[in-house]
Amino acid sequence: MVLFFVVHESPQFIIEKTGNREKARRALAAYHGVGVEDATVETEMKICEDSVTKSKEKAKAKEAKSPIQTDHDSVTVIFMPWKARDDSSKVIREAAWLGVMVKIAYVFTGARCLRAFSTFVLYNLGRWSYDGALYGSFAISLLRIPFTLIPVFLVDRLGRRPLIVTSTVISFLSLSLMIIGIDLGASWKIATLVGLSSLLLTTACGIGSVSRFYAAELVPRNLLISSVSILTMFEALTKIGVEFAFYPIANIVSLNFHNYVMGGSGV
């Protein structure tokens, strides 16, 4: 990490983003191990400048060919609706946020957390034996591999929306079944296993898979390129919050349930 503070930025990046030739020249000299006034530095500078010019020309050509044109940059379109009020901006903004919300909806199905903590769910919450929980978790993980291939063949036949809606409804029913199984204890441990399995397998072939490429289909990439990092960060923070909260909350729920059972039985 310390080395990143002393390493120079890419000369081409410096020229493209700031236009500071002197800073780019110093970076080139440092990378080549020569003086700033060396002739090779000037040659490399011309190569970098030509590359930046060509990249900008290609970007302009793509924008000219694009059927969708906006009067604002992508950050303004996505995050400043009070400024970007034209019809094109409204359509792009709604589509972009829809793509992000589909990904966040997948996070809130709990499948990502339960996939990581499947052994914990079956053993601690579902009251399976340790070996049973371990083998059950392993079997579910193996089954997820072929299930992820289903949307590859069916997404164009069935459509994105039916896959998303159907898998979300099944996820809700699976979670409900799993909650009932956990609440009723060891006598309903099969329900816990069935609920967990159906949740993980359904999301693998439904909203979980579709959400990975759904957002990219909604809006042309060149219109979102400068705001992708912000949207990705928003999605990542949501994932981190949900996943880090799962384990302590699950422990609290499990402990309270245990105390409730022990108190009710008079132990």
Automatic annotation (TrEMBL):
The keyword Transmembrane helix applies. Signal peptide: none annotated. InterPro entries: GLUT, MFS_sugar_transport-like, MFS_trans_sf. One of its GO terms (cellular component) is membrane. The chain crosses the membrane at residues 95-123, 135-155, 162-182, 188-211, 223-247. The keyword Nucleotide-binding does not apply. Pfam families: Sugar_tr. It comes from the Eukaryota. It is found in: Membrane. Its main location: membrane. SUPFAM superfamilies: MFS general substrate transporter (SSF103473). GO terms for molecular function: hexose transmembrane transporter activity. Keywords: Membrane, Transmembrane, Transmembrane helix. PANTHER family: MAJOR FACILITATOR SUPERFAMILY (MFS) PROFILE DOMAIN-CONTAINING PROTEIN, SOLUTE CARRIER FAMILY 2. This is Major facilitator superfamily (MFS) profile domain-containing protein. It comes from Teladorsagia circumcincta.
